[in-house]
Amino acid sequence: MRTATPATKDLYDREMAAARHASDPTARWEHLELAHIVSQPYPWLHTRNHVAMFALAVRQHDRREALGQVVRIIVAAPGSLSGRYPEGNTGRTRDGLMTPMPIPPDLAADLARAA
């Protein structure tokens, strides 16, 4: 199983902490989305990210997002293990489950440094 480098794990942890401490729900989602992009290759981090997204959707009473996150929790680890995940995808229900997306340039630079 692939494990994150310490620098990649720090990047993930930074975004997850920022999501937890953000007072604005939009900012929380944005940090969770960035953490998702970082987490995709790593089964445990990827699954943890979707659990956090599920919890936020439940707190916001967003049934559609919560249901979509349940599906993503189920497929996150197998997708990471098999390498079948859409690079750059934000992990949100509004985005297709297998739709690749561009990685924001600043995050791409952080990921390159962390590798």
Q: What quaternary form is this?
A: single chain
Enumerate the spans where pLDDT stays under 50 for 5 or more consecutive residues: none
What does the radius of gyration come to?
13 Å
Largest sheet: none
Shape: globular
**E-strand count:** 0
Mean pLDDT across residues = 96
Structural class label:
mainly alpha
Descriptive report:
It comes from Antrihabitans stalagmiti. Residues 82-105 are annotated as: Disordered. This is DUF3703 domain-containing protein. With 115 residues, the chain is mainly α. It contains five helices and no strands. The protein has helices spanning 6-21, 25-39, 43-59, 63-82, 105-114. The radius of gyration is 13 Å and the shape is globular.
Short synopsis of the structure:
InterPro entries: DUF3703. The chain has helices at residues 6-21, 25-39, 43-59, 63-82, 105-114.
SSE layout:
Layout: H1 6-21, H2 25-39, H3 43-59, H4 63-82, H5 105-114
Summary tags:
68% helix; globular; single chain; mainly alpha; 5 helices; 115 residues
